[in-house]
Protein: Nudix hydrolase 2-like isoform X1
Organism: Populus alba x Populus x berolinensis
Amino acid sequence: MLYINSNIWLNINDKQMIRIRYRKLVVLLPSKNSPSPVSLPPNRPRLSTTQLPPSSCHGFSKGSSHFKASFSTRKIPASTSSLSMKEQIEAESRVEHVGLLNAVEDLYEGIVIEMKEPVDSTEFIPSLRASIVKWRQQGKKGVWIKLPIGLVSLVEPIVQEGFRYHHAEPDYLMLVYWIPDTPDTLPENASHRVGVGAFVLNSNGEVLVVKENSGGFKGTGVWKLPTGVVNEGEDIPSASIREVMEETGIDTEFMEVLAFRQSHRSFFSKSDLFFICMLRPRSFDIQKQDLELEAAQWMPIEDYVNQPYNKEHQLFKYVAEICKTKAKMDYSGFSAMPVAPDSGKETYLYFNNRDFN
Amino acid sequence: MLYINSNIWLNINDKQMIRIRYRKLVVLLPSKNSPSPVSLPPNRPRLSTTQLPPSSCHGFSKGSSHFKASFSTRKIPASTSSLSMKEQIEAESRVEHVGLLNAVEDLYEGIVIEMKEPVDSTEFIPSLRASIVKWRQQGKKGVWIKLPIGLVSLVEPIVQEGFRYHHAEPDYLMLVYWIPDTPDTLPENASHRVGVGAFVLNSNGEVLVVKENSGGFKGTGVWKLPTGVVNEGEDIPSASIREVMEETGIDTEFMEVLAFRQSHRSFFSKSDLFFICMLRPRSFDIQKQDLELEAAQWMPIEDYVNQPYNKEHQLFKYVAEICKTKAKMDYSGFSAMPVAPDSGKETYLYFNNRDFN
C-alpha cells in the first residue's frame, strides 16, 4: 500500500484559493503498460492532473458539501471522514487559504509574471499552483515567469512544477508553462544574430579595408571590409556607422544595403543575417583600433577585388564584385526609409528606392 | 577577530588539482572606502579572487615546501603550523584531490562544458573551481556550461560561483563565466526574430490574400499578405513557401525579396526583421487553414492596394505600393543565390540580380 500526499485547489474569489491537503491511498497493481502512479509525465514533471487538478477536478468538488463548508475555514484540520471510497482519500486532509500571484494578461490569452522581490519557494509554489488552477478555469494559455538571476533559487522549484525555459539574458531567465491540453503554440525564442559589413568608398575610388588580429582571418594577410555585430535594438545603418567609427575612426553616412546573406548554425544553433552596407565617408584620416586590427588603410577598389582570397571564395568573390559594380554607379541596392508602424515605434523599411520612385 | 574559511588550489597535472582548505584570520579595520573582506564584488558573487585564487596564488605556493610535500596526500590534515605570519593563515588547512571537468576548447580561447549526466553539486562545484584555476593559468577566457533542463538543480550552485545566464532554449540553459580581469567580450545572444510576408501574384493579376482569426488584425476585415515566422535554421525562401502552403494550400516558387523591415522591442527585448518575398504560384485552388484564418482568396491587386487600412498606415502603404510596382515589372528586388562559404555550409546571398548581371 502507498499513500501519496496531494492537494486539491478550490477557487474562492479573484485573490484567494483554498488548498485541501489530503493523503491518497494508492493500491499498486503490477502492469507492464500502466505507468507508476507516482511517475511523472514527460516534460511536465509535476503540474500534472495528479497534483494540480484541471477543471475536471473542480467539477468533482462541486458534489461535496464537505469541501464547500470549508471555504471560510483557515488552516483548520478538516473532517477525517473519507471524501469518496472510490478515490480512497483518507484521514489527514486540511484546508488553508493561499494568496494568488500578481500577474498581467497579454494579448494572446497569456499571463505574464514579473518577479522582482525575493520570495521563499514554500510560499511561491503554492500560490503559483493556485493561480494556475484559476487561469485554467479562465481559459488562459501560456504562463510566463520572468525571473531575475538574483532569484535563481526559484528556478528548480518552478521547473519541477512543469515549466520549461523559454529564453535567457545575462540578468534573467524566462520560464513558460502551457496550460491547455491543446498543442503548445508559444512563440519561439529569437533565432538570428545580425551582422554588418561596411563598403566605404572615397572620392579617389579607394575602399576602406582592415586586417584582423583574431578570428578566421588572423594571419591570412587578407584585406577585408570592416565588420561587426548589430547590437540588440540597433538599426542596421547605425550599426554599420558605429563599427566603421570604432575600427577605423572614419566618420560615415549610410547609403544602401547592397546585399545580404543568411547562414545557419553559426552561433550555437542560431542563424545569422549579414548585411553589406554602402557608406559614404565624411572624413579621411584613419585612427586604427588596436584591439581587433593589425592594420587599416584606403585601398584602390581593383586591388581589394583582385585579392586571391576573394577570387577563391565564392561568397567573397560575389560581395567584392557587387561592390565593384556599385562603384561604377550601375547597381541599385536597398535604401532605408523611416516609417511609422502602428505601434508608433521607429522602424526602417529597406527597398529599391531607384526603381520605386 | 574574524576567521574566513577559504581554499587554495594547486595544479598537479592535467586531470587533478589539489585543494588546500584553510582558515584565514582577518582583522577588521573600520574604513568608509574599503569593502568588507567578506563582501562579494558585483556580478561575481563567489568566484572572486578571495576564494578562487588567480595565478598569483599559484606563485605563492611555489615558495612552500609544505604544500609541495602534500601533492601525493589524499584528504589528510596538513601541518598546523602557520604558512606565513603576514598572511595570518592558521591551523586548520587540509589537502584533498579534486577531479577536473571534461571540457572542449573553442576557437576563441574559450572552454565549453556540455553537461549530460546527473552529478551532485557537492562533487561538481569543487571540480568546476579547480578547473577554472587551471584554465586561468592557461590564459583561457570564457567558460560555457550547457546544462540540460533535467540538471536544473545545478543552476543555483553554478550561478553562486559567479556564472551568469547567456541564453536558454526549451531544453537547456547556457551559463557563462569570464575568467580574465579584462572586459568581458563574450558574444551576445541571438537578437532578432525573422518573419516573412508573401506576395503571390497569379497570371490574372490577382494577389493571394488572407483574413486572420487572431492577433492585431482580428475583426478588422483587412485583407493581408500571408505571413509567418522563419524557423530556426530555415532559409527565407523556404519559410515563405512553407507559410503560403500552410495557410492557403497554394504551391509556390520563390522569386525575390522585394523589401524588408527592421523593428525593435517586438518580442520582449528582441528585434525583428521582416522580409517581403515575391512568389510565383504553381497552383490555383485555395485550401484555407482554419486555425489562423477567417478567409483566403485571390484578389485583384488594385483592390488589395486600395484598402483603407493600407492607405492609412504608412508601412503597409509602402509595402502595397512596392508590390503594385513589382506587378508592373519595373521594380528589381534581391534574388537569392546559393553560394558556398568557407565553412561549406549551404547559404544564400541576396542581391539585385538585374543590376549585377
About this structure: Chain B touches chain A through 82 residues (CB under 8 Å). Residues 26-83 of chain B have pLDDT under 50 and may be disordered. Chain B is about 20% helix and 35% strand.
